[in-house]
Design a protein that fits this description.
By secondary structure, the protein is of the alpha/beta class. The chain has 17 helices and 22 strands. The strands form six sheets. Strands 1, 2, 3, 4, 5, 6, 19 and 22 form an eight-stranded mixed beta sheet that branches. A five-stranded parallel beta sheet has the order 8-15-9-10-11. A three-stranded antiparallel beta sheet has the order 12-13-14, with no helix packed on it. It is globular.
Amino acid sequence: MANHSVKPDNFYHAATEAAVKSYDIAIIGAGPAGMSAAITASKAGASVVVLDDKALPGGQIYRNVTQSPLRDPALLGPDYLKGQTLVEAYQQCSAEKLQQASVWHLGDNGEVLFSREQTTHSLHAREIILSCGAMERPFPIPGWHLPGVMSAGSAQVMLKSDALVCDQPVFVGSGPLLYLIVAQYLRLGIKVKALIDTTPKQNYLQAATEITGALSAPGMIGKGISLLNEIRQAGVAHYRYARELRIEGENQAEAISFSSGGQSHRIDAGHIFLHQGVIPNLNISRAAGVDHHWCPQQLCWKPTLNHWGQSSVDNIAVAGDGSGIVGADGAALMGRLAALQQLARLNLIPRGQLQQQAAADQRQLDRLNRFRRFIDRLYRPLDAHRIPDEPDTVVCRCEERTVAQLQAGFAQGGNGPQELKGLTRCGMGPCQGRQCGHTVSELLAKWRGEPVDKVGYYRLRSPMRLLNLTELSHFTRLEPATHPAADKGDKA
């Protein structure tokens, strides 16, 4: 059903709108942004519900921080452990918290439909904050679809969720998250076979143009240098400026070949973890009709927002990495700012106090964004690692569509993502284009000789996940336990 448009609003809305009790604010996602928004809004007396698809709050960065399966969670680093304070504050706030709740529709009328415990549920909210976080940028090189190849983030999920690791893996890519995961493996006593660093040499010179941003957060620069020193002192084979990556194997990853330092290399490996940064997770904001634009700085699509996180849809704000990559600290700041704006719209705080309450957060967020420009410049991925040109490289892993098949679809008239999708099925799989959407946009821009903004992205519709009829047949409606605070006055 995932590729068919439905209008769940019609289940009951037209007949019973007046009888529906609305939450003041519904928050989608319980990472740093969602938790901070919930704490801020509930303190002001708003009725808040948080819907998160994981078993525990924290998002990816603070996954299982209060119930780690590791004997010594401190090995994951202080930035991970500091999430305990935020998670505990969130758990103590008055917001209604629904874990393992998968949202698959946002209606124009503020309706939210989600699945939980094999049942479809609905609720209504005056305001909605999307804090859906980030996903790893696709890394479409030859062989990336083979068993044994995963994202570095997947390695971290296994580590944080189940204390599972792979023996003698090879890590490939660039960026702080990659170095952090390698260091975490080493602290646990796991041998890392190699770190293949794809950061281009020219990036170091070009990042110097953003040196002011780097100096605005010297502590973060120090953390990065410390991680690289930790990896070097552990004796991990470290190859720099790697290009021409290819993962070899028939039915399983067997080796990776690449060039580095003017030489060709080949490393036998059955476990290969790829990473070249993260990008916003946009499927919900896209399906909700939020305007998006292509960001040349971060090489990704982002929701078009004002400085409060307000989107083009009147009752929807977007906060955290789902709005553009800002990191955990920046996400928490954005969550608070989005909540403050919505509280003012609901007349739960005076509009005259809004700027005063937000000023410190906005200044800190501006500083983090200056540092982010430096990071984005330094770890800007190579075009060849984002826009594949070898015919046999898989672009859509769900439907196993290759570059050659997409080029054939383009030649048949598939000039846009939606047309190409119809001709090739690229983007029609269970992930609904998450893994191929950005690659398709950039491939079409290259083939058309036009900017990515002109090419566009897939048109996404509800439901945003696979559903079965049994699940749809069990339907319940949720309402706030207490009378929403916003009912005391009209929404601004």
